[in-house]
Amino acid sequence: MKIHICLTGIKTIILDCNNISQYSVFLINSALMNRRDIMSAVNPDQYSYPSVFIYGHRATGKSHVVLSIMKDLELPHASVDCVECVSSGLLFHQVLSAFFGPDAAALLPRCPSLSDFVRLYKQMSSNSPATQTRYIILDRAERMRDMDFSLLPALLRLQELVNDNVTVILLSEIVWEKFRPNTGCFEPLLFHFPDYSKGKSLVQILSWDHHPSYTPELYASYINILLGVFFSVCRDLRELRHLAVLNFSKFCEPLEKGEAKESDIHKLWKNIEPHLQRAMQTVYLREVSSVQWEQQQMDEKEATTLRVLSAHAHIELPYYSKFLLIAAYLASFNPARTDRRFFLKSHGKIRKTNFLKKHEKTSNHLLGPKPFPLDRLMAIFYSVVDSRVAPTASVFSQISSLVTLQLLSQVGHDDQLDSPKYKCSVSLDFILAISRCVCVCVRLLDLLALSLVIQSQVVRQERSLFTAVSNLHLL
Amino acid sequence: MFNAAEMSEIPLTSSVSKGCFVFKSASKKRKRHVGVEVLPSLHQLNKKVLDSLAEFIKKHGLGCSSDNWRQRARETPTAALMLGVNVPDHAMTFRSLCNLLQDSVTPFVVSVHAKECAAVKLLIQKVLEQLMGRGVSVDEEQEDDTALLQRTQCTISALCQWYKTVTKSLPVVVIFKDFEAFNSQVLQDFILICSRYTQELPFIFIFGIATSPSAIQHRLPHSVSSLLCIEVFHSLSRTQHLASVFDKLILNSQFPFKLSSRVIQVLVGIFLYHDFSVQNFVKGLQFSMLEHFKSQPLSMLCCQKQEALLSAKTLSKKNVERIRHLPSFMRYVETQEPQEQVQLLTNDEHVKVTLLFHNKLHVSCIEKNLWETEEYDSALQLLRILAKDELVAALRKCAEILKSTKILQNVLQQLEDFIGRLEALEGVSSEDSSGNGIISGKMEYQRTDLFQLQKTLLEKESRRTKRMNPYEVLRSQVIEFIDSLVREYLTPAELQPLNEVCYYSSSGVLRQRLNVTPRTSIQAALSHPFYYLQNESLKTDAGTISSAAPDLCIVYKLHLECGRLINLYDWLEAFLTVMSAAEDQDTNSEECGKYDSLKHARFIQAVSEMEFLGFIKSTKQKTDHVARLTWGGC
CB contacts < 8 Å between A and B, how many? Predict the structure, then answer.
């Protein structure tokens, strides 16, 4: 049987495939209805296209389709996850050992270069010439960009280099344009895996997991309800599947108790909807672990609200550390010019009208924290703290422990001894919480208020912007 | 902790003067006592959270194969262990956690430190080393295998191969000791890689978090944190921890060594203001003990009662004389009869006898709650507002303590009487409170008129002040009784005779030693070299610069007079002037010129030492100038 498939205008490949029925069964089984295109690039008999680039969002079935085809057709292939390849040597090693066995891979020198790999590959492939195309599948190929810059262009035309029937398949979540090197390179064949549509594929795919003791129709309606809640925030098939499994027992509860029948969809919906909303805020964000979530369902006590992760935002800090952090915050977000006004008792008169320059008015919060030298931090610290503090070693060591806790961050090199610079990396809310429990002296509160009053308006703007951006991201 | 103290002891004991030589063994024993006391107590405190962690790992280690769906989601079980910001204490917690897990759950425990894992490669290497190295040491035959693996690859898949050869389906626990310090990219990659192998390799992560659990969300994006199944475990809060150490060591009558209130203030201050570290607190305690046994020869009497009596009998003449010079003893002598005074001051034997007597008395004083004297006022305030059941409970506790000590029987009697009366009152007071409830219930209905409401409220207020309920009356009686009791028996420790034997009170020394100020000591050394060198010729008045001082000191003092930028030539000139002031006035200019190059060299060396100490640095603004790095310029 011959199938003609048109491929994005590049070329038409005639696929000779004897066991197509087996494929279609497989394809349906693996829930990948519109993924048939990929097969056309997989041509076992002739020299195939040197490189294929497949992209699409997370959990759209890229690796699954490719690997299933490889397994099903029993094609020789090497599958490598680029995250694992901390050096290009590991990649070479995995490829060689998949094609020619571990003995061949052991021949690689200690820190193999690309030419070592090509030489060894040539040598090995001449000993055992390819009867059919060999495939190198590189998952998470976006990591390749951080590796040696010559690696990607070389792999794209590996067929030429090693003179063997080999195809490199790159799988990525990023479009090809972000990969293309400046100097240009061989253009791979591009495939796009589009997102699953809500109506058809997602419901269909998710419905395959249906519970044996309930009818598939019931499960499908459950999936519809679930998608109604989660589809706006999450299209990751894997996540949705996870959530579907987690919440199904709750959905079935009225059925088991005999309070509702399978046909009472509305009743069931009313029961599950608030539960799913809660799940979106907790278990989906991993604020609550899935095990805890299940446990809560089993205990069936709505009153015992689980303590979510972000609820423990409060950090207990030593007394001086709190003041150091407040001082760091003030130093980071106030212009150094204003220190004299804020922290000196006799600062002289500064006219209010042009006290702040125009660019300073724009908001320090939108610009982010600015670096400040250690001297300035200590000067503000001494003026903020209410008692006399000796410059002891432990005060200085607290600064470095704040850096390790990542509440402060050091700018520049770690080994800089002369005049290290820091940035404050905590939020306004955090500082306010700290200063509330530390502030016995009114002056500090005033200070904070003074320096924050300019910023508060901007913070509000910034927050709304932030939520807007995060919403956009979710869509 | 204990090792550090042991090490610090070596130079100390060797430098101890001859008089103290005898007491070395006693001090050693005491100190070991502290180590032995505290270690298990700290272990005990963390035991609860560690046990629940072990339980968590056991559960997930077993449930791994049965939980089919979770494997599909590739979630790695993860425990977020909240430890608080007292980083010095963490090491011990992790050590005991490792031991516990290895003993009871799984031999495959790896703990990694952020410092060693700057890249994923290093992290994986660390994990492999710790896991497979252990395997080799157990089984000789595997050595060839692992050698081969290590030679070829350092990947998790290699670990998978190894895990299959081990054939024990136990989880592999990876402990990230300082989660915050890890590079987030390294963590993300590691979690991604591990999640690929969850089917073959049951990983369990433990994150040691110092700040708050939200640190996880700050470090890891959703795509990675969705691979984890996180549960939070809280360890004991630091203040609770300290309180239990206090109970064990300071408020313990078994333990003759005591701290004066000022010393306690210093130690607690360091704890609260600086580090929250219980371990450092215990170290401070050990240090003060060493210091006490070293500096106070009479500390030989500071031991258990029997030993103290023994050693008191054999006191040498010199030591008896020392006792006579103790301020507290002198105060005691003054309060005695004149004849007794004479005897005390002349007869050694008599002193010894009185000493024995006082030792007993003193020990009995210590047995009571010393801490209360300091916090007495606040405690009374608290008692005044205590609810009834709490008060009864507190009184019961007091009675129990008194029963165990077998002194002050009459006080015990009175206390029990009070408890009885309070309990009898129970019925009455409950009725009373219900009456109050009715009043407030009525008021709810009258809320329509604001003015009237105000009036009734005022009325109610006045009624409350007028009529004290019987419970309140009784409570004030109890408080008065306790107050008188405390005033009678708990006199401040400083007023007790012979308190110097058991109490360590030099808080200044302690502060100087534990809360060091490197900058001020450098400044002291440079501006007053006599302080450290103890050379008579270096004694100078405050403002002047002595030419006899080391070059560095002269250069330092001269630089204090300069602004932010210092002209090197002017500095040199001033240096030469100071140097030449020491020489004879009538030396001619030729000789001066001869020594010039030598002085020049000395000056340059001193300047480079200044740079090394961080007072100045070279600047690009002006080539022949250096910049001051310390304050005080301009």
Answer: 134
CB A288 within 8 A of CB B228: no
Q: Give the three-state DSSP class for A27.
A: helix
% chain A with pLDDT above 70: 73
Cα distance between residue B196 and residue B200, in whole Å: 9
Phi, psi at residue B504, to the nearest 5°? -95, 125
Is the pLDDT at B118 greater than 50, yes or no? yes
What tokens does B514 get?
């534990």
Task: Work out the mean pLDDT of chain B and round it to a whole number.
Answer: 68
Q: At which residue do the structure tokens 């009479």 appear?
A: B298
- On whether the CB atoms of residues A263 and A215 are closer than 8 A, the answer is no
Burial of B208 (0-12, 13-18, 19+ CB in 10 A): buried
Rounded to a whole number of angstroms, the distance from the CA of A236 to the nearest CA of chain B is 10
Q: In Å, what is the CA distance from A25 to each residue of A22, A66, A200, B453, B484?
A: 5, 16, 19, 81, 93
b/e per residue, A139-160, with b = 16+ CB within 10 A? bbbbbbeeeeeebbebbbebbe
Measure in Å the smallest separation between the Cα of B72 and chain A Cα atoms.
8
Instruction: Place B206 in a pLDDT band, splitting at 50, 70 and 90.
Output: very high
8 A C-beta contact, residue A186 and residue A180: no
Where does the pLDDT of residue A422 fall: very low under 50, low under 70, confident under 90, or very high at 90 and above? very high
Q: Any idea which residue has 């003179």 for tokens?
A: A163
Separation between Cα atoms, residue B491 and residue B330, nearest integer Å: 18
CB A209 within 8 A of CB A243: no
What CA–CA distance (Å, rounded) separates B568 from B603?
10
B45 contacts B244 by C-beta, under 8 angstroms:
yes
* CA-based nearest distance B390→chain A, Å: 28
Q: What is the pTM of this model?
A: 0.73
- DSSP class of residue B254? T
**Cβ within 8 Å of residue A285, ≥6 positions away:** B222
State the amino acid at position A475 in one-letter form: L
Looking at beta carbons, which residues of chain B come within 8 Å of A320? 273-274
Q: pLDDT tens, A23-75? A: 333 443 443 334 444 555 555 456 788 888 998 888 888 888 888 888 888 88
Q: Which residues contact B300 (CB under 8 A, 6 or more apart)?
A: B22, B23, B26, B311, B319
Locate the chain A residue with the closest alpha carbon to B221. A285
* DSSP states along A149-207: TTHHHHHHTHHHHHTSSEEEEEEESS-GGGT--TT--PPPEEEEEPPPPIIIIIHHHHH
Per the CB < 8 Å rule, is A391 touching B223?
A: no
Q: What is the pLDDT of residues B339-369, one digit of tens each?
A: 665 555 555 555 555 554 444 444 434 433 3
- Greater pLDDT, A21 or B387: B387
Q: What pLDDT band is residue B301 in, cutting at 50, 70 and 90?
A: low
Q: Do B189 and A83 touch (CB under 8 A)?
A: yes
pLDDT computed for residue A384 by the predictor: 79
Query: ipTM of this model?
Result: 0.81
Cα–Cα distance for residue pair A292/A252, rounded to 1 Å: 19
- Paired strand residues for B625: B567
Backbone angles phi, psi at B166, to 5 degrees: -70, -35
> Cβ of A395 and B274 within 8 Å?
yes
Q: Which two tokens stand for residue A370?
A: 């600015």
Number of H helices, E strands in chain B: 32, 10
User: Binning pLDDT at 50, 70 and 90, where does residue A170 land?
Assistant: very high
DSSP conformation class of B235 = P
Q: Which residues contact B287 (CB under 8 A, 6 or more apart)?
A: B5, B8, B510, B513, B514
